[in-house]
Specification:
It is built from 10 helices and 14 strands. By secondary structure, the protein is an alpha+beta fold. The protein has 2 domains: about 170 residues, no CATH class; about 160 residues, Nucleotidyltransferase, domain 5, CATH 3.30.420. It has a 7-stranded antiparallel beta sheet. It has a 5-stranded mixed beta sheet with strand order 10-9-8-11-12. A two-stranded antiparallel ribbon has the order 13-14. Helix 1 packs across helix 3. Bound molecules: zinc ion.
Length: about 375
């Protein structure tokens, strides 16, 4: 099996490197914004917009013109990545891709500065070679496995980071057997981060929702107010912006750590993971502002993503119930289905009279459905040999 994984490290750039980073990120932003403007104008006029290939061809011509000859100083594939990002953003908007999203926005200076090398990057000891920039030292906290496929440089606050997306081949793991005592049903929610039902006895566990963003919200609001009081583009304003961005990064890292630790802990003790398939984008669209914030803060998507790839790597089973599967409406005892408005926190079955907490009921149902899918697959001898 091919394993794909990303690794991020803090860079230790010299002043000359930082200047080049800003120059590269600025050029990519310029190419992206110019391309977006072209696509937008042309689409409004003719209903068609120039393709990636047409815009890329134009990029070569721009380098030959005196006023845009500065583009020659930037690695050509880095600039092309800017156009590719734009093309992807357009495809997403027109729903050609699996992830529909809003109309692409113009990129602003100082916000999420980044650029990407699709190839040509080498790592040697504790330094990385970036084409047209040179060797830059970084805090190498772990070994980098496999082959580096892409390298992205990003700025967070005043710091710069390098992210390597790597690939390597791993022997297919032995598939775990289908044993209900190693199964867990997971229902994610807002009251608890997740409610789980494990083993044949449906042992319950409620995982507390850490609500990192909600807890940090008042301080973030305070920092954001401080920033708005400062004179624009002044030294004090950039100091205040840095403080705010550092706090946002802290929240992001806490979430990431929580998700990684929880998924690793679950993987160690179970072989079968039965979860619901979440349509977060849809949930966010139909939720109020506060609710949407709570959903984003919960980071269910990244938790389930981590769980899935870790399970696959170790030959464990990850079963997702369909997007429209009504796990919260089905009785865990008798399979009766009844409407369950979100405000009703307890499942009182109108058929068999069993009473259960709503989320716990769902986790049992998810586990049962996952197990029945796996058992029916397992009963086929050709699949069992895989
Ligand atoms: Zn029932």
């Amino acid at each position: 099996m091919i394993v794909k994984r990303g690794f991020k490290f803090k860079l230790k750039p010299k002043a000359i490197h930082e200047n080049l980073f800003l120059q590269f990120a600025g050029a990519v932003r310029w190419v992206f914004n110019r391309g977006l403007d072209q696509k937008k104008t042309s689409f409004e006029k003719t209903g068609k917009s120039p393709s990636y290939f047409e815009q890329n061809k134009e990029l070569t011509l721009l380098k030959q013109q005196p006023e845009t000859a500065w583009l020659k100083d930037i690695h050509s594939q880095v600039l092309q990545q800017g156009l590719k990002n734009l093309d992807r953003a357009f495809e997403n908007f027109f729903r050609k891709s699996k992830k529909p999203s809003g109309f692409p926005n113009f990129k602003k200076k100082g916000i999420k500065e980044s650029f990407r090398f699709p190839q040509g990057v080498t790592v040697e000891d504790k330094r990385v070679f970036l084409p047209k920039i040179g060797w830059v030292a970084f805090h190498k906290s772990r070994e980098i496995p496999g082959v580096i496929k892409e390298t992205t440089i990003t700025q967070e606050g005043n710091d710069w980071f390098v992210s390597f997306s790597c690939e390597w081949e791993k022997k297919d793991p032995k598939l775990a057997s289908v044993d209900e005592n190693k199964a867990i049903g997971i229902d994610v929610g807002l009251t608890s981060f997740a409610t789980t039902a494990a083993t044949e006895n449906n042992c319950r566990e409620d995982i507390e929702n850490p609500r990192f963003f909600t807890k940090a919200l008042s301080h973030l609001r305070y920092l954001s107010k401080q920033l708005s009081k400062k004179v624009k583009k002044s030294k004090n304003s950039s100091k205040a912006r840095l403080k705010l961005s550092k706090h946002h990064t802290r929240v992001k890292n806490l979430r990431k750590e929580f998700v990684q630790q929880l998924s690793s802990k679950m993987i160690k003790s179970h072989d079968i993971f039965c979860v619901e398939s979440l349509d977060i984008s849809h949930l966010l669209k139909i939720s109020s502002k506060g609710m949407a914030r709570a959903i984003s803060d919960a980071s269910w998507r990244s938790f389930l993503y981590c769980l899935k790839y870790k399970a696959e790597e170790q030959g464990k089973h990850f079963v997702e119930a369909g997007k429209y599967f009504p796990s919260s409406q089905i009785c865990a005892s008798c399979n009766h289905q009844q409407p369950m408005p979100l405000s009703v926190r307890e499942y009182l079955c109108l058929s068999c009279g069993v009473k259960n907490d709503r989320d716990y009921n769902s986790s049992i149902v998810l586990k049962a459905v996952g197990m029945s899918v796996l058992k029916s697959l397992w009963s086929c001898p050709c699949l069992r040999e895989l």
